[in-house]
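Minutes, project check-in
Item: structure for the 142-residue chain
Input as provided by the requester:
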Amino acid sequence: MGHFFKTVEQAHNAFLEMGSVDDDSITKFFKLFADYLSDDERFSAIKDSNDEDVRIARSKGRSTTRLILSEKMRTDMVAGLRLWENTPSQRGSAIEEINHDGWNVKLITAGLGAVGFIFEGDLTSLRTLLEFFDQVIQLSSE
Protein backbone atom coordinates (compact mmCIF):
# COMPACT_ATOMS: atom_id res chain seq x y z
CA MET A 1 0.00 0.00 0.00
CA GLY A 2 2.97 2.31 0.65
CA HIS A 3 3.90 2.12 -3.04
CA PHE A 4 0.41 3.30 -3.97
CA PHE A 5 0.61 6.38 -1.72
CA LYS A 6 4.12 7.17 -2.97
CA THR A 7 2.89 6.97 -6.56
CA VAL A 8 -0.05 9.27 -5.83
CA GLU A 9 2.26 11.72 -4.07
CA GLN A 10 4.67 11.71 -7.04
CA ALA A 11 1.79 12.32 -9.45
CA HIS A 12 0.50 15.15 -7.26
CA ASN A 13 3.95 16.79 -7.11
CA ALA A 14 4.43 16.42 -10.86
CA PHE A 15 1.07 18.08 -11.46
CA LEU A 16 2.05 21.00 -9.20
CA GLU A 17 5.27 21.44 -11.18
CA MET A 18 3.23 21.69 -14.39
CA GLY A 19 2.13 25.16 -13.26
CA SER A 20 5.58 26.45 -14.24
CA VAL A 21 5.37 25.07 -17.79
CA ASP A 22 4.83 27.76 -20.41
CA ASP A 23 1.86 27.72 -22.80
CA ASP A 24 3.98 26.97 -25.87
CA SER A 25 5.32 23.79 -24.24
CA ILE A 26 1.79 22.68 -23.37
CA THR A 27 0.66 23.27 -26.94
CA LYS A 28 3.72 21.37 -28.20
CA PHE A 29 2.86 18.46 -25.90
CA PHE A 30 -0.67 18.15 -27.34
CA LYS A 31 0.73 18.40 -30.89
CA LEU A 32 3.39 15.73 -30.32
CA PHE A 33 0.97 13.42 -28.51
CA ALA A 34 -1.47 13.68 -31.45
CA ASP A 35 1.36 13.24 -33.97
CA TYR A 36 2.59 10.12 -32.18
CA LEU A 37 -0.88 8.58 -32.00
CA SER A 38 -1.33 9.38 -35.71
CA ASP A 39 1.95 7.71 -36.67
CA ASP A 40 1.20 4.09 -37.61
CA GLU A 41 4.67 2.84 -36.70
CA ARG A 42 4.66 4.42 -33.26
CA PHE A 43 1.04 3.51 -32.61
CA SER A 44 1.65 -0.13 -33.49
CA ALA A 45 3.22 -0.84 -30.07
CA ILE A 46 0.09 0.44 -28.32
CA LYS A 47 -2.17 -1.44 -30.72
CA ASP A 48 -0.16 -4.67 -30.34
CA SER A 49 -0.40 -4.41 -26.55
CA ASN A 50 -4.12 -3.77 -26.77
CA ASP A 51 -4.58 -6.74 -29.11
CA GLU A 52 -2.76 -8.92 -26.56
CA ASP A 53 -5.01 -7.62 -23.76
CA VAL A 54 -8.07 -8.43 -25.89
CA ARG A 55 -6.73 -11.93 -26.61
CA ILE A 56 -6.12 -12.57 -22.89
CA ALA A 57 -9.55 -11.23 -21.92
CA ARG A 58 -11.27 -13.43 -24.51
CA SER A 59 -9.32 -16.49 -23.36
CA LYS A 60 -10.67 -15.85 -19.84
CA GLY A 61 -14.22 -15.41 -21.12
CA ARG A 62 -14.31 -11.72 -20.27
CA SER A 63 -16.17 -9.06 -22.21
CA THR A 64 -14.00 -7.07 -24.62
CA THR A 65 -16.67 -4.58 -25.69
CA ARG A 66 -14.93 -1.56 -24.16
CA LEU A 67 -11.42 -3.00 -24.28
CA ILE A 68 -10.89 -2.97 -28.03
CA LEU A 69 -8.87 -0.01 -29.26
CA SER A 70 -10.62 0.66 -32.55
CA GLU A 71 -9.51 2.96 -35.34
CA LYS A 72 -12.47 5.21 -34.51
CA MET A 73 -11.30 5.46 -30.90
CA ARG A 74 -7.79 6.32 -32.08
CA THR A 75 -9.17 8.94 -34.47
CA ASP A 76 -11.28 10.44 -31.67
CA MET A 77 -8.27 10.57 -29.30
CA VAL A 78 -6.22 12.37 -31.95
CA ALA A 79 -9.10 14.78 -32.67
CA GLY A 80 -9.38 15.59 -28.96
CA LEU A 81 -5.66 16.27 -28.70
CA ARG A 82 -5.76 18.47 -31.83
CA LEU A 83 -8.64 20.40 -30.29
CA TRP A 84 -6.52 21.16 -27.22
CA GLU A 85 -3.49 21.93 -29.39
CA ASN A 86 -5.49 24.55 -31.28
CA THR A 87 -7.36 26.02 -28.32
CA PRO A 88 -5.78 29.31 -27.23
CA SER A 89 -4.62 29.31 -23.64
CA GLN A 90 -6.72 31.30 -21.22
CA ARG A 91 -4.45 30.57 -18.28
CA GLY A 92 -4.30 33.57 -16.00
CA SER A 93 -7.22 35.33 -17.71
CA ALA A 94 -9.86 37.04 -15.60
CA ILE A 95 -13.20 35.58 -16.66
CA GLU A 96 -15.31 37.36 -14.08
CA GLU A 97 -14.85 40.36 -11.82
CA ILE A 98 -17.06 41.59 -9.01
CA ASN A 99 -16.43 45.15 -7.87
CA HIS A 100 -17.37 46.62 -4.52
CA ASP A 101 -16.51 49.89 -2.80
CA GLY A 102 -12.80 49.69 -2.11
CA TRP A 103 -12.24 46.08 -3.19
CA ASN A 104 -12.88 43.58 -5.97
CA VAL A 105 -12.72 39.87 -6.64
CA LYS A 106 -11.57 38.25 -9.88
CA LEU A 107 -12.15 34.71 -11.07
CA ILE A 108 -8.90 33.69 -12.78
CA THR A 109 -8.61 30.60 -14.98
CA ALA A 110 -6.04 27.88 -14.46
CA GLY A 111 -4.93 26.35 -17.73
CA LEU A 112 -3.97 22.85 -16.75
CA GLY A 113 -5.88 19.67 -16.15
CA ALA A 114 -5.44 15.96 -16.51
CA VAL A 115 -5.14 14.13 -19.81
CA GLY A 116 -6.08 10.50 -19.74
CA PHE A 117 -7.37 7.64 -21.80
CA ILE A 118 -8.71 4.70 -19.85
CA PHE A 119 -7.61 1.26 -20.95
CA GLU A 120 -9.48 -1.62 -19.35
CA GLY A 121 -8.03 -5.08 -18.93
CA ASP A 122 -4.53 -6.21 -18.18
CA LEU A 123 -1.69 -3.76 -17.63
CA THR A 124 0.19 -4.45 -20.88
CA SER A 125 -1.53 -1.63 -22.77
CA LEU A 126 -1.19 0.77 -19.86
CA ARG A 127 2.55 0.09 -19.53
CA THR A 128 3.06 0.62 -23.25
CA LEU A 129 1.01 3.83 -23.18
CA LEU A 130 3.01 5.17 -20.23
CA GLU A 131 6.29 4.48 -22.05
CA PHE A 132 4.87 6.20 -25.13
CA PHE A 133 3.60 9.11 -23.01
CA ASP A 134 7.04 9.48 -21.41
CA GLN A 135 8.60 9.80 -24.89
CA VAL A 136 6.12 12.54 -25.80
CA ILE A 137 6.85 14.48 -22.61
CA GLN A 138 10.61 14.20 -23.17
CA LEU A 139 10.25 15.52 -26.73
CA SER A 140 7.95 18.37 -25.74
CA SER A 141 10.46 19.57 -23.15
CA GLU A 142 13.32 19.74 -25.69
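Outcome recorded: The chain is about 60% helix and 10% strand.
No further action items on this chain.
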